[in-house]
Amino acid sequence: MRRRTDPALARDNRGIGSRTVGAVAEISRRTARNGKSGTTARNGDWPPRVVMRRAGGLRTLEAALIRSGLGPVAGVDEAGRGCCAGPLVVASCLLAPKAYDSLAGLDDSKKLTENERERLYPIITRRALAWQVVVIPAWEIDAIGIHVANIEGMRRAVAGLETRPGYVLTDGFRVPGISVPSLPVIGGDAAAACIAAASILAKVTRDRIMVEMDGALPGYGFATHKGYNTPEHLAALARLGPSEEHRRSWRNVRGLESDGTTGRVVADPAHAR
After folding, report:
1. Which key words are in the record (predicted)?
2. Binding site for a divalent metal cation, residues?
3. pLDDT in tens, 90-126
C-alpha cells in the first residue's frame, strides 16, 4: 500500500550541517509570516544575517541568534524513530542563559550513558525557561507514517511551550507549520545546547516508558533494548508475535501475528510477499 505524504513535507529539508558549527558562518534569517515557517523576512529594519563566531561550542547557534535579537531559542529532538515497538517521543526545550553553567556534560543523548542522562534530566527540567514532551503511540505512527509523526510531534512540542520562543532549532528536519522562525540543523543534538537538552528529555522519557511497558508485556525485553531491532528483540518477536505496542507498519513486524494461545507466530497471507 502506498503511503500518502503531506505535500508540505516533500519540500526542501536541507539544514545547516554540524560541521559548520564552530566556524565563522552566516545564516540567512528566516521568519514566520502569515503563520507559516520558513518564509523570508522582508522588513528592511531587521538584521538580514546571523553571524556565528568561532569556539562557541554547543552555544554557538543559540548565542548567534540571541545576539541578533532572535531569542529565546528553543531546540526540538526526538527519541525512538528507528524502533519497531513503543512510542515516538518528541521534546522541546528552551534553556535559560544561566542554565548552561549547571549543565556540564551536556551533549547528544546518544553519546551519554543512562546514568549521565538521568543526572541531567532533572537539572534541565528545573533550569529550562520552558520544556514540553509529546508522546506519539505506535498506533498513530502506523496511521500517519513515522516521518509525518515526527514532524507533527515537533509541531506539538513547540506549540506546547509555555514561553514562546523567538527562534526554533530542529534536529535534521524542516518543520512546516511552526509559527516562529526555524532552522533544521543536521546532527543538531551534537551542535546546539537546546537540541541536546531536548534529546535528553525525549530519550529519558521514552526509556522510562519502555521499562514500564516491559512490566505490562513481559517476554519481549523492552526494558533492555527499548524497542530497537536487536537480535534479542527480533527473536522474541518471532517467538511471541507482535504486541499492541509494536508498529505494524514496520517491515519486520508487518505480516506477523500470534495465535493468542501458544504464542506461535503465523504469517498473515495478506503480507506473504
Report:
1. Cytoplasm, Endonuclease, Hydrolase, Manganese, Metal-binding, Nuclease
2. 77-78, 171
3. 999 998 876 656 676 776 677 889 999 999 999 999 9
